[in-house]
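sanity check this record:
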Amino acid sequence: MRLSIVTTLYRSALYVQSFYERMSRAASTLTPDYEIIFVNDGSPDESLSLAQALQKKDPRVVVIDLARNFGHHCAIRAGLSYAQGDQVFLIDSDLEEDPQWLLLFSKRFNDTRADAIYGVQQARKGNFFERTTGDLFYRLFNIMSSVRIVPNAVTARLMTRRYVQAVLLYAERELFLPAIWTLAGHAQEAVIVQKGSRGKTSYSAVRRIALAIKALTSFSDTPLVAIFYTGLLISIGALSYAGYLIYRKLFHGLEVMGWPSLIVSIWFLGGVTIFFMGVIGIYLARIFVEIKQRPLVIVKSDSSQ
């Protein structure tokens, strides 16, 4: 198989037929040896039946029906695991991402021989709130995590087989693909694209917040480590102030009222408590990293075969 095209379906009934026609034309320009994989992510509309109707007419269409709605990123990973092509083109089916990008990405792929060609929006689409919160998330994630993700990257990307296999090594339950794309390594090149808009998005504010929390807690142990340093600073501050009160009493004969000593005691004990919680947090952070069982290395090539 030369080329696999992977897309997901969720409330996509309005776009399935048009996506199939446009994607087929683009793929046929490159090769007759291709497949189009539709992954139905528990869509409540007619997306599944429409895709199945296409499958009956065209043997190059593959339909994967998930048992329920698992989420966009999990559905993408499922589709990638079924892809058989030497090259895999991932794209959303709602036509905000143009199927003709396949030709653009393929040209860049041939020019650079990179393992992944991905699209990046020159200007993030959406209203002021969406753009602002999106920019804030990217900044916050890249500050808090050791993994750097590309701001304003779109779903669409053209990948080699070995890159897809590297991505599939990450069998995480709390899946956040933008970070996995980076962790998979290999040579990757960006292409500037202009993403369309179809109005209302299936990513509500609540889903966006949930995704942001998942991303930050899955790829950053900074909050846990921060607890340790917060407790440490509070303890140092309380001890310093206690030393100051003792100094005033011993060298200046000033009475130490009950209120300051009580506050110092409370702050000191609070700081110690948070400090010990922070120590536990650091150990939890280590467990947090270990239980993911991410691959230690990814072999790009070898001479054993």
Residues 222-290 form one domain.
